[in-house]
Write a structure and sequence with these properties.
The protein is an alpha/beta fold. Helix content is about 40%, strand content about 20%. The chain has a single domain, classed as Purple Acid Phosphatase, chain A, domain 2. It contains twelve helices and twelve strands.
């Protein structure tokens, strides 16, 4: 019966999940992001943080959207927990600063007590970075409770210690060719009418969606599998970032990885155009095969859209249904999109995209 219901209801539940998960409005998103960026730049220290780093020396790993749950059938993180811990072990040993970019815990479905009890190993793996003063955490819409000091003091500080601070935005600042450049980081839910502190959406997820998901054991992970929704939101955030000066924008929220304003389908489309121009038939066949494989996942994707500026990056998420996690690295003057996937004994790191920050900065200025 459960298998039959999974087959019968998957599409309908996917549509429902889309309707309750996101509704980005371009003007609202741009206004919210502009206001938040202005707060950071003005030196407003409440819920914002500014960090400076030399271009060639900064070492940051940025993950978001773990959605840690109670390790039951409704918990999207349970399949990724081992890969996540292995990744954190690597970055801790390599001396990275860990920026946790929101939706770290899934508090629309579960209580803080349930989540913290079931995720002690992952939380302790994060705490090591804080103990070394290399941990910065941002709240998202699914862990909005961490916006409030009372909740943080009650639940998180007993785990992390009194030094823990929760931010809404972080600004990384560096210099290149006698100019100052900024990397603006926030979760990305700001201005999203169904995510930006909307109690109704949270109630629908907790009271209706979670019991259904728990029984049917379906992990739709809507933002990762419904590209029509995330395409709109990512384009809005790209367009806002492209209007800024000397700034890169890194967000999470949509669960869809973006590197230098291009997602995987955009890059395949670009590569296909280039292969056709050179007449490389083998490369054309290979890319067309990859596009065919991605056709279902990216159903609803708009036509290939060449970005104006490589100003927007998205971490993806740490709760893909196959257990993979994605994130953004900054190290040695390079910025990378990386994926950690299951191996025989431990998770394996794969670099999906990489570019010198200097080249990205040059591109921002049209050089």
């Amino acid at each position: 019966m459960r298998t039959f219901l999974q087959w019968l209801l998957r599409r309908q539940l996917s549509i429902l999940a889309e309707k309750i998960s996101s509704s980005p409005d371009k003007k609202a998103v741009e206004k919210a992001l502009s206001r938040l960026l202005a707060r950071v730049r003005s030196g407003h220290k409440k819920k914002t943080l500014r960090l400076s780093f030399p271009l060639q020396e900064g070492k940051y790993i940025i993950f978001s959207d773990q959605h840690k749950g109670a390790r039951d059938e409704a918990d999207d993180f349970r399949g990724s927990a081992c890969n996540y811990r292995d990744a954190l072990d690597h970055y801790f040993q390599e001396g990275f600063h860990f920026i946790n970019l929101g939706d770290c815990e899934e508090l629309w479905k579960y209580t803080p007590e349930q989540v913290l009890e079931k995720n002690q190993a992952c939380l302790q793996a994060e705490k090591r970075f804080l103990d070394r003063n290399q941990y910065s955490r941002v709240f998202g819409n699914h862990d909005l409770e961490w916006k409030f000091p009372f909740q943080v003091n009650r639940y998180l500080k007993p785990v992390f210690g009194s030094g823990l601070k929760i931010y809404e935005a972080i600004l990384l600042e560096t210099g290149y060719r006698s100019r100052n450049y900024s990397i603006f980081l926030t979760h990305g839910h700001q201005g999203d009418r169904r995510s930006d502190g909307n109690g109704l959406s949270a109630w629908v997820v907790a009271a209706i969606w979670t019991p259904i998901q728990r029984y049917l054991q379906i992990s739709l992970n809507t933002p990762a599998t419904s590209f029509a929704l995330t395409d709109k939101h990512n384009i809005i955030m790209h367009d806002w970032s492209a209007a800024q000066s000397d700034l890169l924008f890194i967000s999470g929220h949509t669960h869809h990885p973006v590197f230098a304003s291009m997602d995987h389908m955009d890059r395949l489309g670009r590569d296909l155009h280039q292969a056709a121009a050179t007449g490389d038939q083998e490369k054309i066949r290979r890319i067309q095969s990859a596009l065919e494989q991605k056709k279902v996942t990216f159903s609803g994707k708009q036509a290939y859209r060449a970005p104006q500026k490589p100003s927007y990056f998205n971490t993806g998420c740490c709760c893909f249904s196959d257990g993979d996690i994605t994130g953004i690295e900054i190290e040695g003057g390079l910025i990378r999109l990386v994926k950690w996937t299951s191996g025989k004994n431990k998770a394996l790191r794969q670099v999906l995209e990489e570019a010198p920050l200097s080249a990205v900065f040059d591109s921002l200025r049209g050089a």
